[in-house]
Amino acid sequence: MQTDDIQRGRLAELSEDECWDLLRSRPVGRVAWSGAEGVTIVPVNFSVEDRMILLRTTPYTLLGRDAAEREVAFEVDVIDQDEHTGWSVLVRGRCVREERASDGTVPWVTGPRRLGLRIETETVSGRRILPHPAE
User: Fold this and answer.
1) Is the whole-model pTM more than 0.85?
2) C or N: which end of the chain has fewer Cβ atoms within 10 Å?
3) How many CA atoms lie within 13 A of 6 on its CB side?
4) What's the pLDDT tens digit per position in 69-109?
5) pLDDT tens-digit profile of 9-26?
């Protein structure tokens, strides 16, 4: 199928409640920040609590050393390449250290993930790619 043959969909803005529901539906997102090594984006598993994003890592990772106490962006998305549909949610806020790692976030990798990080949300926004109206 050539690009000209694709029926394009449309974008719909998501409400804040829809954004939080979608965030809770996925186990992995990406954290982005500008730090000592420049702009960095890393995938993380996470949990949502009281409209905050909770992460667990080790103190010596780049995320643990560099993202805490900085403004960050956090994104989760789902894309269906075949159907040309999907959604994306973007959270912006400050990443701060937690006194203890959250029990709600279970790391996918081995090793002690003792450092808890919390993204205190300043803004949340999202968009959904809807199918073409003729479909």
Assistant:
1) no
2) N
3) 12
4) 999 999 999 998 888 889 999 999 999 998 655 555 556 55
5) 789 999 999 999 999 999
3-state SS string over 59-112?
A: CCCHHHHHHCCEEEEEEEEEEECCCCEEEEEEEEEEEEEECCCCCCCCCCCCCC
- Of 46, 12, 27, nearest to 119 (Cα)? 46
41 in Cβ contact with 69 (< 8 Å) = no
* Amino acid in the structure at residue 130: L
User: Phi-psi category of 107—alpha, beta or left, where left has phi over 0 and alpha has psi -120 to 50?
Assistant: beta
Q: CA angle, 25 as apex, 16 and 87 as ends, to 5°? A: 60
> Which two three-digit tokens encode residue 115?
């450092």
Contact between 85 and 62 under an 8 Å Cβ cutoff? The reply is no
Which residue, among 10, 119, 125, 127, has the nearest Cα to 56 in the 3D structure? 119
CA distances from 122 to 4, 92, 103 (A): 40, 6, 24
